[in-house]
């Protein structure tokens, strides 16, 4: 069994636990490899309908700067390949087809914050510490931070946080619309699981399609979004669950969905 992370189960919910909170779950190459492996495993498992990511007392302190030094010393090409490898973690999280929720306590710095923001929904502790730390170490945003933060908080807030390297707590992050929910630290995982359970009550094909539509629409124009919605909704309207919902509505009963 790995000492970096494991995939637990809470009914239809997968709970991806990072297992080194005492070290603040550094975002190493090994961490990325296991993250990708576990997310792919959860995606293939049809009994898992949503996933919650949690690091326990600390989500992730970000890039393993000490561990990266060996590759950086090899020059620009090796460094570029290493950064792209690190980006595999964010790609796997952002492209994950099922609902993904981050439960953030303690620190979420740099790549750790990027990973948290790659999820569909972020629940943060009131005293969580979030930081786009790149400027502090003479770097620029990576692991998707430049895009993810602007998508959530807007360009001005994103520039302020990136350029200052300012650390904010969970309450401020919610005020800035960087995270969706904020609760005391001892309630973070519980709240994330509550949201996941609420989502898993719905037909899975519809939920996954809705996630795909929302992600695609966020990256296009209004008219392009209408086309995306038309194409996806046309499939769902002819699938097994939407017709059942309409039939149940007309018969004044609860629908009996097949895609539970």
TrEMBL record:
Q: Does the keyword Lyase apply?
A: yes
Gene3D superfamilies on file = 2-enoyl-CoA Hydratase, Chain A, domain 1, Lyase 2-enoyl-coa Hydratase, Chain A, domain 2
At the top level, the lineage of the source is Bacteria
Alphabetically ordered keywords of this record: Lyase
Listed GO biological process terms: fatty acid beta-oxidation
Q: Name any one Pfam family assigned in the record.
A: ECH_1
GO molecular function, a single term: lyase activity
Q: Does the keyword Membrane apply?
A: no
Q: Which family does it belong to?
A: Belongs to the enoyl-CoA hydratase/isomerase family.
> Can you say what this protein is called?
Enoyl-CoA hydratase
Species annotation: Pseudooceanicola batsensis (strain ATCC BAA-863 / DSM 15984 / KCTC 12145 / HTCC2597)
């Amino acid at each position: 069994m790995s000492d970096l992370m494991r995939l637990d189960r809470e009914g239809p919910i997968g709970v991806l636990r990072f297992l080194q909170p005492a070290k603040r779950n550094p975002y190493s190459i090994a961490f990325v490899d296991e993250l990708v492996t576990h997310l792919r495993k959860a995606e293939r498992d049809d009994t898992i309908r949503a996933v919650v990511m949690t690091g326990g007392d600390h989500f992730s302190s970000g890039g393993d700067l000490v561990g990266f030094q060996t590759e950086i010393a090899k020059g620009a090409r090796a460094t570029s390949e290493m950064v792209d490898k690190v980006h595999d973690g964010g790609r796997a999280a952002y492209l994950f087809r099922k609902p993904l929720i981050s439960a953030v306590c303690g620190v979420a710095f740099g790549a750790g914050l990027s990973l948290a923001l790659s999820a569909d929904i972020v629940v943060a502790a009131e005293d969580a510490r979030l930081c786009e730390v790149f400027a502090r170490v003479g770097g620029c945003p990576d692991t998707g931070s430049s895009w993810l933060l602007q998508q959530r908080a807007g360009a001005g807030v994103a520039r302020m946080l990136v350029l200052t390297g300012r650390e904010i707590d969970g309450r401020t992050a919610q005020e800035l619309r960087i995270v969706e929910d904020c609760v005391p630290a001892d309630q973070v995982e519980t709240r994330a699981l509550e949201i996941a359970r609420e989502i898993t009550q719905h037909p899975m094909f519809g939920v996954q399609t809705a996630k795909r539509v929302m992600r695609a629409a966020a990256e296009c124009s209004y008219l392009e979004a209408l086309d995306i919605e038309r194409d996806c909704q046309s499939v769902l309207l002819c699938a097994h669950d939407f017709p059942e919902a309409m039939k149940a509505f007309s018969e004044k009963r609860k629908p009996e969905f097949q895609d539970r």
